[in-house]
Amino acid sequence: MTEQPRAIDEMNPDGVPRKVLLVAGAGRSGTSTLAGIVSRLGMHVPLPEVPPDDSNPRGFSEPQWVVDVHDEWLAEALVQVSDSRPTAWFDTGRICSREPARIRVSEWLEPHFADHPELVVKDPRLSWFLGLWRVAAIRTGATPVFATMLRAPAEVVGSKQKYYANKLGSSHLAASWVNMLLHTERATRPAEGDGGRVFVRYEDLLTDWVKTTTALGHALDLQTIIHTRSDQIREVHRFIDPNLRRVTSSLDDLALPRRLHDLTGQTWEELNKLADEGGDTPDAHATFDQLREAYVDLYEEAEAISRSSAEHARLQARRRALAEASTGSEARSLADRVPHDVRAAIPPSVRRGVRKALGRTRDGQP
Hints:
There is one protein chain. By secondary structure, the chain is α/β, with parallel strands linked by helices. The chain folds into two domains: about 5-305, Rossmann fold (3-Layer(aba) Sandwich), CATH 3.40.50; about 310-355. The chain has helices at about 5-10, 30-40, 65-75, 90-95, 100-110, 130-140, 155-165, 170-185, 200-205, 210-220, 225, 230-240, 260-275, 280-305, 305-335, 340-345, 350-355; strands spanning about 20-25, 120, 145-150, 195-200. The chain has a four-stranded parallel sheet with strand order 2-1-3-4. It is globular.
């Protein structure tokens, strides 16, 4: 079967300018759905992709290299994917400002433009490094554009608890959502070399993906989306599952501390305005600056009065480590007290079983 010519080539014979669509937002907020839609409409997700799993059986539409490099940098900065600390942005910001890191990303991006001039890069960790990706894209001659997914915070928290077995609690997850979204809003504001930004409600995407995605394509001047084909549209219709919204809950269900509850609700209310036409204004930016300051104040206050809890957790971890080390030492000591001639009389298969039961290894093997 002969592959159909791409509409992007037919409609734009003089070529399409390079663009990188950076899909940001908290995990479980619909970033995979949006990236999956635009990739099926023709935009290119650099390969190889992260394989599907039970938490996302239709796929993540995110490049494996991007996930790996973000994990590497987050580990170096001692930052969690869902980190609620405002100071965590300074830790990842130091990596964003490194020249070798910028070169590394731009060199990774460059060859993928041979496959398609418009790329989509998505990863829940992306918000921590948006400044780096902006610089790297511009260095390849591409225009960075941003799409931030918006999903009700209670649904994001519930989805993480359901699919990721997160044990840190609703308050932590809600605080990390506020921290992530307030920073993402700040990091995606217009800057020299950018091509714009949009905020997309997950609910809108599921209700009418055609209208929502078309508006995104025109707002960011993405030629692949503007000049898509009918067969690609049919493919997206097959991809969209009306049951994708599998977790529904309200903010009241989370039983958050009052101030965190109020701040989370205010942040969600203001973010929704950005998704409306004409809502992304300087006045809105000022409101988000105030919300960010309020969150920093709240976190610093909570941190100041909870140091005993942090110290207690540290001491508990130390006690567990000492207990585990002591148990291993006792097991080794017991084995060492068995005379050599007695150990030699034991069949090798039995000795291997004993070593395994004691947690001992030989030549680095279990």
